[in-house]
Amino acid sequence: xxxxxxxxxxxxxxxxxxxxxxxxxxxxxxxxxxxxxxxxxxxxxxxxxxxxxxxxxxxxxxxxxxxxxxxxxxxxxxxxxxxxxxxxxxxxxxxxxxxxxxxxxxxxxxxxxxxxxxxxxxxxxxxxxxxxxxxxxxxxxxxxxxxxxxxxxxxxxxxxxxxxxxxxxxxxxxxxxxxxxxxxxxxxxxxxxxxxxxxxxxxxx
Length: 205
Prior knowledge:
This protein is mostly helical. It has helices at residues 3-14, 18-31, 36-48, 54-66, 71-83, 87-100, 105-127, 134-161, 165-181, 187-203. The protein is built from ten helices and no strands. The longest helix is centred in the last third of the chain and has 28 residues, at 134-161.
């Protein structure tokens, strides 16, 4: 899956030859444009060499021009943005991949997981707050809960699309936890919790 290019690039980096490492990764990207390992390595090496990670996006967009209906290329673009901490554009790209191919479950699932991961990050920020900082706590709590709510719809869509049982179990677990959080706020959340709790009990054996 392109790991050989990432590994070879690491060898060149260890030798202090960033130019060769870049060349290998660019070659690997052309052959494996959706390889997360290559994408991450490309971004890191551009950052380490004070170069522009947007060059990776240029490569992806070139590939998209050649294959406009390739959903995985938009997914790959989203991964670049995500690694650049640009969640807004990452989510747009993930949605685009699912729009192009409604069977491309990873696109819509990753929208949900991106929101869910953000909620976990916010939770950690809350845990590290000064206990007397009520204003920041209230602000972060609102962001935390909104991130969880934002994850519901894409997770639901992913659950409906995939036929992979293990994947369904993972999604159901995330949805169960979110619905449990809000179960006292609206009957629909209690219903959601009961639905996915029952699914997990029936299938996670």
